[in-house]
Structure formats: C-alpha cells, structure tokens
Amino acid sequence: MYSINLKRAGHRKLASIGLLTLTLILSACGNNNSANSTGGAANAPAASADATTAPASEAPAATTAPAVEKTVTDAMGHKVTVPANPQRVLASYLEDYLVVLGVTPVAQWSVTNGIQDYLADELKDVPTISFDLPLEAVTGFAPDFHIVQSEASVQNGLYDQLNKIAPTYVLGDEISKDWRKSLLKIGELLNKSAEAKQAIAAYDQKAADAKAKISTVIGDDSVAILWLVKKNFYIVDETRSSGAVVYGDLGLKLPNLVTEIPAASRATWNPISLEKLAELTADHIFLVNSDKTEGSEILNSPIWKGIPAVKAGNVHEFASNHSWLYSGAIANSKTIDDVLNSLVK
Amino acid sequence: MSRSQLSSTPKKRRTRETAILSLLAVLIVAMFIISMNTGLIRLSPTEVIHTLLGEGSQQQKLILFDFRLPRIVISLLVGAGFAVAGCILQSLSRNALAEPSTLGINAGAGFAVLIFISFVPATTAAPIFMLPLMALAGAGLTATLIYVLAFRREDGLSPTRLILIGIAVGAGIYAFQLILSLRLDPENYQFVATWLAGKIWGGDWRFVMALLPWILILVPFAFYKARVLNVLNLGDEIPVGLGLPVERERVLLMAAAVALAGSCVAVSGGIGFVGLIAPHLARRIVGPRHQILLPACALVGALLLLTADTIARWILQPSEIPTGIVVAIIGAPYFLYLLARSKA
C-alpha cells in the first residue's frame, strides 16, 4: 500500500525497493495463502501484477520504449498514473471498447438478471462483476488499471477506495456519451490509439456502405426504434445508443414523436405511452422486446395494431440480447447488421 | 421494576450489572472477530491476526484496514448512537414506540440529504463532508417542528401526541422524498434508494472521524443525565415537584438525541428499528434504571447493528443488501413477539 503511494509521488527508487520487499513478503506468505484461503486464486494474480509493474517503474522514462507509465487527468480532475502496460484491466460497462482494442478485461459488467448479451461470445471466459463494483470483488480481481464510465457511479468517496485497489480513471459522462471519443480515449490510455482509429475507420466505412444500400431500398421512409420492457414502451433519443446509428450513421429519417420530447428532459430511452404511440407515423418500427412473457398482451392490443407501420407489417423485432440498447463499435456494427437484414432483403 | 431487583442489595445488583455489561462486551468482541473474517474474500482468523500484526499481503491489508475495519467501527458507533437516542426519546416521551425513525427525525435528516444530492452535482468532493451537516440540520428542523406542534402549554408534551405528530410529519416528509427522488437520474436515485433503506456506505476512516466526536460527546452526556432521565420518565408532575427544571432538561436531552440520530443517519441512512429494539431489549435485561440502562442500550445497539451489517455483507455475496433491511427483518418479528406478549 505504501509503496504504491510513494510511487505516485515519484519516488521510483523507493517504490522498487518497496515492491521488492513486497514480493519477498508475498513469497514468504505464499504457503500460508494457498493452504487456507479460498481467495488463493485471487492472490496469485496480485503477485503477478506486481511483478509486471516492477520492471516498468525501474526503467527510466528516457528510453525509446513505446510503453511508459504516464500520468493523466481524468474527468473528475484526479491525477491518475496509468501503468506502462496494463495487464489486468477492469472497465465495467466499457467492455465493447476493450474487445475492439483486443484487451480482455479481468471481469465483465453484470446485473442480477444478466450481462451484455451481445458480447457473450467475446467475453465467454470472463467472470462477472456486479455493476455497483463491490470493493472486495474488485480487490479479488486484482486489476492493475481500472476505468470507470460515469462520475455518478463513483461518487461519495467510492472513487478514493477504488483508487486504493488500482489506479482508477473516470471516463466521464461528457466523453462516454460519444462512443468514438470513448474508444479514442481508452485507446490512448491503453497505448492502442492506432487500433482505436482503425476500428472507427472500419466502422465508418461499413456504415457508409450500409447507408448506400439502405437508401436505395427504403428511400425517404421514416423509422422508429422502440424498446418494450415491463409493459412500457421507450423511444430512443436520435443522438444516442442505436438512435445515433440509425439516424446519424445510416441517415434514416426520424419519425414524429421523438422531436416532441423536450430537449431538457431527454434520456437515452424516453418513456412513451401507448396512447401517444397511436400517433406514431413511422413507416418502419424496430422493436427491442425485453418483455417476452408479459409484452404479448400489449402487442396484441388494438392501439398497437392500429399503428400504420404495424398494420403494414413493417415491425422488425429483436430480442434484448441484440445490441440495440448499447453503444460502441461492436454494438453499433451489430445494429447495422440487424438493420440491413431487416430492410434489405 | 421487578420485585427481585427491588429486594436485591445494591452490592448484589452491581455485581449482576457488571456481569451483564461484560457479557455484552464479550459478545461484541466475538462479533467483531467474525465480522473481520466475513466478506467476499475469505480471511481466516490466523490471516486476520497476521495482517493486524502487519504481516499480511498488500491485498489483505487493503481489505482489512481500508474496507472492513472502518465499516465495523461505523456499525458499532451508529448502533450505539441510534440505541441511546431511542432510549432518551422513549424515556422523555414515556412512549415505548418513540425512536428517531418513528418520530420522523430520520426522515427529516434523509430529506435534507436528498435535497443536497438533487441540487449539488456529485462530481465535486464536497458531498462527503457536507452530508453529515445537512443530515443534522434536517434532523434538527424536523425535531423542532414536531416539538412545537406537539407541545401544549396546559399539559406539556403528551406522549401520544408526540408520536402521532411525529408519524404524520414523517409521512409528509416521506411523500416529498418520493416526489424529489423521482426527479433524480438513475445513478443518483439508486444511491438515494439504498441510502434511505439504510446502507452503511461510509466505509471509510473519514466517516469514522466525522461521526466519532458526536458519539464521544453525546453518549457520555446521556450517561451523565441518567438520573434526570429516571425522574423525567415518571411524568411531568413529580419532576416539577422535585424542583427539576423540566422544560430545560427535556429540551437539552431531546437536542442530544436528535444530534445523535442526525449524525448517525448521515453515515448510515435511515436504519430504523435499532433505536426502537435496542432500548426494549436492554430494558428487559437490566431494568429501567438509566444509569445501567443507557450503557446497556449502547452495547446492545452496537452488537445488533454489527451483527446485522455482517449478515448484510454475507448473505447475498458478492452484492450486499442494505443493513437497514436486515435490521427490519430481524426486528419486525421480535417486535410482533413483544406486542403479542404484552397483551397476554
């Protein structure tokens, strides 16, 4: 603990001595740990993480080596020392970016009823961590670098405690609402700026191709994106999540209703009543159905069936394990695939 | 007071009281050790001792000294604080149902905190240090309001009126809390919701330092006023007859109870029931003499909350449930049992 603090203060010699001592202590306690603790698995990575940071702190910054420890300022103004080569990265709810950059996180975001299903293949061997980042769970994964998405999730002293476990960088809402900026920033932190730029270019190319194909098929038709969960409909903001993909990147026409929501009270997904939906004039509806069991009642109601797009049979339904609720190069790319599959036959 | 206690000699009584307090202290120490070993990452007793002696790994030190110990200490302090506050309020109002949460004091403190969270961005460092002060202000204002509404010049502070007005004011504040919390964004709402349910979230030595002065000053102050509480508990006429400045003493003690409750709410949220049950339990064990009742109360409250918090951390790993809910789950059946017995 002390050695880490000293390292941050710049006393590198002391830090390496501290790390050496620590390694000695760790190896001395080794038997004890494996003998009587179920957390033994968690202890081992801690030791290896120390070992990987040790050479970095000994190496002077003057060498031409591409990866050096760097100090950056995060969205909340914390000075964060990013390890030269983070090996055990934790970035809950930012896994999309890590996967794009070829980084496997030590744990992935989860809530009681699931994970980010659209990334299930990429992250199938990654253990889960609760969204609220329980301190002991974080400690157990022994991260050496930690990225947090939002200021609000680490308020009231949680940041300080997380930062004791590993250097913690808060991305901030300002950046995280734009996936391109997020990817570039995370790429910069993890020394993978080139990969980040490449991924964005590839995505933009894919979006442009898809846009050309789609516009020849549906022309000037408008599309709505709805999310059905717990018997309530939500409509997406045109600048966020799948809204940014469909209206922004693919240039599809926005239906009425979205623009009627006052800008000040817009969230990513905005609640909308079934009665209001009756006025929806969209030609196509993309429906993310998170309500397989109870939702059928609503989808059989006369009001829903009276909506023009529904009457015309232009509803494209996706289960909640599709990427429409998320944001990132992978999520958006999968959303484009879904749009292509639905509209271009 | 039971007959056996009346007939026992002071010396015998003192031995018995010392034995009870020592037993409670031993139980707390035992729970303390169990709590140190409890958590997502198992630390065996030997590992805990190694770590306490400074020989643990960095990870073990972090878990024990930075995450578990502050939280354990806060549980003890908050439990003792709520219990003593509840005991004072029960004796002052001569109503067995009085406690900071039934009197709406917790709600008032919570409301002040909620207002603060709603209108001050959480990204600044200020909230941690401002929250206790906001909670105290809210608790103080609510208590004043309830006192003014419940007090009648002709018959003083009627126990029933105090409780009823407390419940009414509490319900009103709760309604405003709901309205306000619906306006919050999800992250803040979640924080507020678990906070109101009573979660010991201030697992940090800074919170211990913020709470400690209040407990260290106000709990001994209550012990010091034990005799006054004995007399006030008899109703208004007798203390006046004995020449006690009733109104002044009552306001002073009430202020102490409110300050205790407010400072505890600030770090633990609305943990009810401890302030209600701990005095009841303590009274059953040691009787109604405040010289012994108050210390017993403090110990029972500390033990109760530490136990509840340990269960809260353990039962749904890796996530935890708010401690206040555990207290309510344990507390509600016990309270029903008390009610059933008192009828018989």
From TrEMBL, chain A:
UniProt GO BP: iron coordination entity transport
Example of a GO cellular component annotation carried by this entry: outer membrane-bounded periplasmic space
Family: Belongs to the bacterial solute-binding protein 8 family.
Pfam families: Peripla_BP_2
Localization in the cell: Cell envelope
Keywords: Coiled coil, Signal, Transport
Residue ranges the record marks as coiled coil: 186-213
Record-given protein name: ABC transporter substrate-binding protein
Domain Fe/B12 periplasmic-binding: 86-345
Keyword flag Transport: yes
Leader sequence residues: 1-28
Alphabetized PANTHER family for the sequence: IRON III DICITRATE-BINDING PERIPLASMIC PROTEIN (PTHR30532), IRON(3+)-HYDROXAMATE-BINDING PROTEIN FHUD (PTHR30532:SF26)
InterPro entries linked to this entry: ABC_transptr_periplasmic_BD, Bact_iron-sidero_bind
UniProtKB/TrEMBL annotation, chain B:
Cellular location(s): Cell membrane
One Pfam family this sequence matches: FecCD
InterPro entries to which the protein is assigned, alphabetical: ABC_BtuC-like, ABC_transptr_permease_BtuC
Keywords from the UniProt entry: Cell membrane, Membrane, Transmembrane, Transmembrane helix, Transport
Cell membrane as UniProt keyword: yes
UniProt-listed GO biological process terms: siderophore-iron import into cell
Signal peptide: none
Predominant location category: membrane
Gene3D superfamilies found in the cross-reference section: ABC transporter involved in vitamin B12 uptake, BtuC
Transmembrane segments: 20-41, 72-91, 103-122, 128-150, 162-184, 204-223, 252-280, 292-315, 321-340
Bilayer topology term: Multi-pass membrane protein
Family: Belongs to the binding-protein-dependent transport system permease family. FecCD subfamily.
Protein name according to UniProt: Iron ABC transporter permease
